[in-house]
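New to this. Help decode the following:
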Amino acid sequence: MRSWRASGTIRWRRSRGSPSCSRPGCGRSVRPRRRRAMDDIEAIKQLTARYNRAFDSVDVPGYLATWTEDGFFERSNAGRSFQGHAELEELLTTFGVDGRHVTSDFIIEVDGDRATSSSHLIYLDVDAGFKVAIFGIYADELVRTDEGWKFSARRLQVHAPKGT
């Protein structure tokens, strides 16, 4: 915690969780759990960024590294789903649009070694001057593995403009 002096310099004060705290626990038992949860949330956001960049650059090993072996992907307007690394590779290498993923507005809930994530997707078509090709909402299921967080399922609900 900091406080301001009239001169504008910063004077640091000890917070309640500092070593001089005389209360039992001083809130220390909650902080490591909160820190771990925040670390998990950041790791899941980083996983999503690696997924986006690998997909956009058609980096097969990088893309598959974001998935569990039996990973499942479904897009509401695709007419089919993809399961397992072979089908996920097919999805990546046959996708018909050269685009860029932009994901935002994450809502992530972690429960031990499992998590769910929801985020908005804006998919920009490079060949059309970065026009929005897809807008939708991801609903993700994730698992913690020895290599870190991975997607076990991603479902993309595509939202079409009204009148289309």
The CA atoms of residues 51 and 102 lie 11 Å apart. The chain is about 25% helix and 40% strand. Helices lie at 30-56, 60-64, 84-94. Strands lie at 2-4, 10-12, 67-75, 81-83, 99-111, 114-125, 131-145, 148-158.
